[in-house]
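Weekly structure sync, notes
Attendees: PL (lead), two postdocs, one rotation student
Agenda item 3: pending single-chain targets
PL asked that the sequence for the first pending target be pasted directly into the notes so everyone works from the same version. It is reproduced below exactly as submitted, 205 residues in total.
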Amino acid sequence: MRSTFRALWWLPVLALGALLSGCGYNKIQTLDEQTKSGWSEVLNQYQRRADLIPNLVNTVKGFAAQEQAVLIGVTEARAKASQIKVDANDPASLKQFQDSQGQLSGALSRLMVVVEKYPELKSNQNFLDLQSQLEGTENRITVARNRYIQTVQDYNIQVRQFPGNLTAMMFGYKVKPNFTVENEAQISKPPTVDFNAAPAPKPTG
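Predicted structure, written out during the meeting:
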């Protein structure tokens, strides 16, 4: 009898594993990890942009030191965005993060408008290198954000639909906040960094 019991002790374990798998537990785990990985990549790309900004500001300052208001605006926006300790699972914290990144994008856009007034700056090799890096970073930010948005959507569908919603409730998994539509339109529009575009022809009188 004891030998039979020892031989069959693992059956409840297998049954529990099959139950958890069938009710979506494993799927929730997978999607939860994907959202964490996706969020890490979003932060990584925003940090990459933040790291470029000091060199960008210093290069512009070398040719356009009189543009103090714009230069200070970019520096302050970067500092504000870098100081935020964001919790992607907290809607208020995520919104604060989005707003700060949107303000930084706006400050960068204003800086690029100023650059158009300085032909020597636009042809400076160091500046051109920074331009290329910034363009690539903005593209990476867009890709990382889009991937994160999709992973959160997949996760939220899983924890809302039956029977996954019962499993999520049992183990404390909740719907995750995502980038808002309004903010997405603002941030997904990267600052213009094409300094090689031909100027518009002046109207003739």
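Discussion points:
- The longest helix spans residues 25-63.
- Residues 43-187 form one domain.
Action: rotation student to compare against the earlier draft before next sync.
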